[in-house]
Amino acid sequence: MRTTTLIPRRIATTGITVLGAAGIATAALTGTAHAAPQTAKPAHQATAQAAAKPAKADDKADKKADKKAEKKDTGKKAEDYPDNLDGWIREAMSIMKKHGIPGSYDGIKRNIIRESGGDPGAVNDWDINAQKGIPSKGLLQVIQPTFDQYHVKGTADKLTDPVANIVAACNYAADRYGTMDNVDSAY
Fold this sequence. Notes:
This protein is mostly helical. The chain is built from seven helices and two strands, in the order ααααβαβαα. The protein has helices spanning 16-30, 43-74, 85-99, 105-116, 128-131, 144-150, 162-177, and strands at 123-124, 136-137. A two-stranded antiparallel sheet has the order 1-2. The longest helix has 32 residues, at 43-74. The chain starts with 15 loop residues before the first helix and ends in a 10-residue tail after the last helix.
């Protein structure tokens, strides 16, 4: 004999105790009584999944609130940037624009390629800074004291964070050279 089991809002021949009278009434009223039978999960799995759903909903609500807050701060829809060199440069340029820091996409990219080859984890362990114990790090090979001085609030407080590294380096280059676009060698 084939046994069918229940999922919420469906009537079947077994598992009525899991669904309960209210569920049966709802299923009957919504017209789902003739739905194809499906295998029900054991009660402990169903309870665990039900408990997990509010957490997922909370995560979604938190993300939505973060996006809404960002939209409110900027007056524009928050933009998602890809987690790659192009995305890091574009996100950095968006932040730089808000803070009046000059620099073009091409000028930033040219310097990144020369300094780190596009590797946000690049560390220079051979130059004079490294010999003094403060190696240059990140996409634009910034040393920690320079990063600390030129860090822009609102970016990560980590030297090797790609966006924070770009913004701090461009802030430094703007102060020292007018713009990152004017930098054609190690700076």
